[in-house]
Specification:
The chain is α/β, with parallel strands linked by helices. The protein has a domain of 136 residues: Ribonuclease H-like superfamily/Ribonuclease H (Nucleotidyltransferase, domain 5), CATH 3.30.420. A five-stranded mixed sheet has the order 3-2-1-4-5. Strands 6-7 form a two-stranded antiparallel sheet. Helix 1 packs parallel to helix 3. The radius of gyration is 22 Å and the shape is elongated. InterPro entries: RNase_H-like, RNaseH-like_sf, RNaseH_domain, RNaseH_sf. Keywords: Isomerase. It comes from Tunturiibacter lichenicola.
Length: 228
């Protein structure tokens, strides 16, 4: 009589239980997204928590975006969620964001007047058109805590800060997935706040930078003053 087979322990203890419902590709998935910048513009990032319709976590998205504005980061969070849905063949997506401006612009209730946001809005509408179903709603920040945490983690990474201290710091967390808002970098709008190597001559008076030769600096640009 052959020996009875013995149970082999799972090599992947964090794998979903067989009883966990597997999302159908026709089901809705739900995303909470957030974006922020430390300064406006400043070091920025976005985060998003994506779940199936049963509340199971499908992905955590988190990416540092460089020197950008708050609104750029908010739109990047939406684009990251849309790209995740398209890449993983989820045809129906619900998005929750605490950016009232972005939500109402996507809903068509607000006009998009900013030249910096117009290409982001257009790209978002293009990706939405590829889905079978899409909904976006506004929520207050306290209802968007996970996405806010992931956005701040992205900014911390970009600024090379250590992990937050406290009881939650010792808890293992899954590595975030990088869902780049623009997979093809050539399609991304130019960054007006990117670092430049240009050196200009001028002087400071009463805390104001004056550039010689009549040159002007755009609002929000960071300058390093070198004494001659």
């Amino acid at each position: 009589m052959p020996p009875r087979p013995t149970a082999v322990p799972s090599l992947f203890p964090e794998a979903p239980s067989p009883n966990t419902p597997t999302p159908k590709k026709t089901d809705w998935i739900n995303a909470h997204c957030d974006g922020g910048a430390r300064g406006n513009p400043g070091p920025s990032g976005y985060g998003a928590l994506i779940q199936d319709d049963h509340g199971n976590v499908l992905a955590e998205l988190s990416e540092f975006l460089g020197l950008r504005t708050n609104n750029y980061a908010e739109y990047s969070g939406l684009l990251g969620c849309l790209q995740y849905a398209l890449d993983h063949h989820h045809p129906r997506l619900r998005v929750v964001s605490d950016s009232e401006l972005m939500v109402k612009q996507i809903q068509g209730k607000y006009k998009v007047n900013s030249p910096d946001l117009k290409p982001l809005w257009q790209e978002a509408r293009s990706r939405i058109a590829k889905l079978e179903g899409f909904e976006i709603t506004h929520a207050l920040r306290h209802k968007n805590k996970d996405a806010d945490r992931l956005a701040n983690e992205a900014m911390d990474r970009g600024m090379r800060r250590g992990p937050a201290t406290g009881s939650s710091a010792s808890q293992p967390t899954p590595s975030p997935i990088k869902a780049t808002p623009y997979p093809n970098k050539s399609e991304a709008p130019p960054n007006p706040y990117a670092k430049a190597d240009t050196m200009l001559r001028g002087f400071t008076k009463d805390g104001v930078v004056h550039i010689l030769g009549g040159a002007t600096l755009p609002d929000g640009v960071f300058v390093k003053i070198i004494r001659e």
